[in-house]
Amino acid sequence: xxxxxxxxxxxxxxxxxxxxxxxxxxxxxxxxxxxGERNPSVSVAKKIAVVxxxxxxxxxxx
Length: 62
Description:
- It holds the Pfam family HTH_3.
- InterPro entries: Cro/C1-type_HTH, Lambda_DNA-bd_dom_sf.
- With about 60 residues, this protein is an all-alpha fold.
- The protein has helices at about 5-10, 15-25, 25-35, 40-50.
- It has a single domain (about 5-60), classed as lambda repressor-like DNA-binding domains (434 Repressor (Amino-terminal Domain), Orthogonal Bundle), CATH 1.10.260.40.
């Protein structure tokens, strides 16, 4: 689980569907990323980061 990602999304009062739509990805892909089941590509990480206003490189930190 990426608790930090869930917290950032909830802080904006948005649903997974809202974030996925704005990032132009499927809700299921966003859910898998949020749950830690998949890692985003660099381009997807950047899109999500823009929507939630954070540095995209956090996805790739240990």
